[in-house]
Amino acid sequence: MTAAEGSTGPQAPRTPRPVFPVTTPDLVAHRRELAPDIHAKWDEFSAAVFAAGALDALTKQLIAVAAAHITQCPYCISGHTRGALRAGATEQQIMEAVWVAAEMRAGAALAHSVISLTAMGGHSHATGETKE
Structure pTM? Predict the structure, then answer.
């Protein structure tokens, strides 16, 4: 028996606690009760945004999956992934949307490098001195 096992033998892995609170019907109802008019407007806005228009509902949900990954909202990731599946998305389409998000987030860091490059514009790398 190892010291890590103790006298009771190996321990079963524990289910990790969620990092974010689990959304429950009670919490949603309480949120709605605290600001019913605003919540109703939100529901109307959301329904209008995700209704088929120039973009079909599936495309909108795939965009939402990508945006949710960029904004790193776990609730949005979960909800819009389920929404995309309900709209007919394949797992491959959803994963491609996630990869688009990854490229966009990483691409933003690359694109913003011009700010650093501009700030370094008057600096000589070889000597560490400022160019005149």
Answer: 0.74
